[in-house]
Amino acid sequence: MATPQLLVDKAIALEYLRHGAKVAINHLGGPNDEPLVEAFHSDAAAVAADSSTRFITVAGDISKPETGADFVARIVDAFGRLDVFVSNAGVCQFAEFLEIEPPLLSQTVNINLCGAFYATQAAGRQMALKQTPAGGSIIGISSISALVGGGQQCHYCPTKAGVLSLMQSTAVALGKYGIRCNALLPGTIRTQLNEVDMSDEKKRAYMEGRIPLGRLGAPRDLAGPAVFLAADELSGYVTGAQILVDGGLFVNLQ
């Protein structure tokens, strides 16, 4: 997995550990990540007694082309092969369209889209060309924002549409190697990205009122769908798909 969104990564990773998988997590690194990473290792140990041999964390800036390749190499060095790869890099700083400056646009595109491309390409190269048998599952975390517009997300929504398109395109490109590529499209999930925004009670109540299931999503809500897309016995004939994980928000937009 590759992302600064450690809460979502944690939920998916812990569920994978519960199912017996060996798991590696990429995180940006630096002092801000340290408490989250320490808590991550503690939670992993609580879920799996043998987590010291089944769980590793690797620091690196996913927006850099070399990070994806280095991360995949660390995974293979630790575990021998790569069968499932979840690309979840994402940043979103709300901003008015007319006020967005090039540095913000570049940062958002470089992390959300370029980072996803580089990491997915590195995973695909390993799954297709460097291991026997070839094959695997790549899961891109897109967003409901890939399907709708956002007035303060004109720099963000196109990147998530790009991730969806990347999964559709790689499904075509990598199918001949037995690699399945699919996208998860979460709705409003409480993470670090929207913590300040969702602390506004009126805004949160408005959002919850639009969701048929009546609540905002939690990182754990992505874990089950991620397990489904990872498992050949469950989703072996599913590729190029997009699965909304939004409590019904998209079908209720009007």
UniProtKB/TrEMBL annotation:
Keyword terms of this UniProt record: NADP, Oxidoreductase, Rhamnose metabolism
Origin: domain of life: Eukaryota
Pfam (any one): adh_short_C2
InterPro entries linked: NAD(P)-bd_dom_sf, SDR_fam
GO BP: fatty acid biosynthetic process; rhamnose catabolic process
Gene Ontology MF term list: oxidoreductase activity, acting on the CH-OH group of donors, NAD or NADP as acceptor; quinone binding
Family the UniProt entry places it in: Belongs to the short-chain dehydrogenases/reductases (SDR) family.
Name of the molecule in the record: L-rhamnose-1-dehydrogenase
Species, as recorded: Talaromyces atroroseus
